[in-house]
Amino acid sequence: MPSPGSSRPVLTRALESPLVTSKSSTGIGRLIRDARMQRGLTHSQVAEALALEPSVLRDIEMGARSVDLDEIARIAAALQDPSLAPVGRTMHLRIKGPTTLSGSIDVRSSKNAAVALLCASLLNKGRTTLEGIARIEEVNRILEVLESIGVQVTWSADKSELELIRPETLDLASLDVEAARRTRSVIMFLGPLLHLLPEFRLPYAGGCDLGTRTVTPHLQALQFFGLNVKATDGWYNAAVRETDGGVRHITLTERGDTVTENVLMAAALYPGTTVIRNASPNYMVQDLCFFLEALGVTLEGIGSTTLTVTGAEEISADVRVAPSEDPIEAMSLITAAVVTKSELTVRRAPIEFLEIELAILGDMGLQYDLSQEYPAANGRTRLVDITVHPSTLRAAQDKIHPMPFPGLNIDNLPFFAVIAAEAEGRTLIHDWVYENRAIHLLELGKLGARTTLLDPHRLVVEGPTNWRSQEIVCPPALRPAVCLLLSSMAARGVTVLRDVYVINRGYEDLANRLNRLGADIQVFYD
């Protein structure tokens, strides 16, 4: 089955060939070299991933050093590692369809929880160990920013654990501005930093192009902790003033995930009580709450819209936590099964954050089964295995629109455009949160979907769809870009999806994981 740069097919075929049977070091070395060069990787990149000296890898490729089957498997895994990207080259996907998926796939840990915990690690003077963190571009950018200001970042040998140690004094003068501008998550540095520095500045945040996303709720709420911010010339210039003690009552003007997380982090280092009303109880907020509890912060009301936080004057603890699985990735995989008319089991799905989505899908005619519930690694999140069966779908009776948790998740809304394109009838998708995302979903029309934009927030989709292949440049928005990838698997012919960096922001090795289910997706570079 194909994989990035076709490295895995080359080595897999080699393992079954007389070349390997005869233990030819020269032949194996040539295959490894060809696979590395096909991906555009350097000796140093691959050697570092294997914990080898570059000279050793050169010897292997030249046939001067023999390798056994276990070592070949390690090298093959490194060559298909999505985090090893050719420097200065743009990644594209070539998708051949239509395809039918089968088997089962595990949901990986949450992108949004990961970035929250990375930002929250700044609160801790001790050692923070995060298990199972998704190795995605959004995480990479935050780690680049953290390392640039002095945080010690160490991956375990198998990349399953990430250790972070904050220095006594952060060096914000050395902040990696380019990395910071490529992620909106840097806005969540405000909560921790206001306790650590009297003055600092952060670059304007980037991320997906989804229209205007105001930071006003963050600044309004953080004023209660003495933070004043002036925005000038692409920077947030922050100054922190002394504040009175006592219980702080903060009502958020927007029930947003990141603003709730920012206030939680600010409250964690306030040695008193903070009551947060109209708080988001969403999955990433709960994961942050579990992390703060591990640090010794007392929280009441986790999972509700009122959080009571009793913070500490200082936090210095060696903690180990695991973020829970990602409900948005789970919905992506459910959509993959729906659009390809496949029977697929999505394992380790956080059911509490998918119940509304599944209820709507059930009303549309989707047949699926749920396993018994079991706990996530954090011991708190409820997981199930969801088996999706090929189904005849009908359009939703009412418009499909997001709501704050426990409503339909705003990040899951775009997938319903793909699902509606499979359903008989007319479906109205109403994205009242973002101005531009419904516009990005019009790109589905290039693959054959019948879509009509009523205004920047409302999209009509008429199905069913005869998907067709096309060459498309990824829109600058994560979920609509993934929708194009999923739909391409149902399209007859070869679809080329160009510049998929935005997909890599939120998904780890998605193409290769879909290939293991039967997809035919190849990665290539300019």
From TrEMBL:
Start and end residues of each HTH cro/C1-type domain: 32-87
Reactions catalysed, as given in the entry: phosphoenolpyruvate + UDP-N-acetyl-alpha-D-glucosamine = UDP-N-acetyl-3-O-(1-carboxyvinyl)-alpha-D-glucosamine + phosphate
Example GO biological process: cell division
This protein's pathway: Cell wall biogenesis; peptidoglycan biosynthesis
Pfam families, A to Z: EPSP_synthase, HTH_31
Keyword Ion transport (UniProt): no
Class of this enzyme: transferase
UniProt keyword list: Cell cycle, Cell division, Cell shape, Cell wall biogenesis/degradation, Cytoplasm, Peptidoglycan synthesis, Transferase
CDD domains tied to this protein: HTH_XRE
Entry EC number(s): 2.5.1.7
Subcellular location, record wording: Cytoplasm
Molecular function via GO: DNA binding; UDP-N-acetylglucosamine 1-carboxyvinyltransferase activity
Family per similarity comment: Belongs to the EPSP synthase family. MurA subfamily.
Described function: Cell wall formation. Adds enolpyruvyl to UDP-N-acetylglucosamine.
Name under which the protein is recorded: UDP-N-acetylglucosamine 1-carboxyvinyltransferase
Organism field: Propioniciclava flava
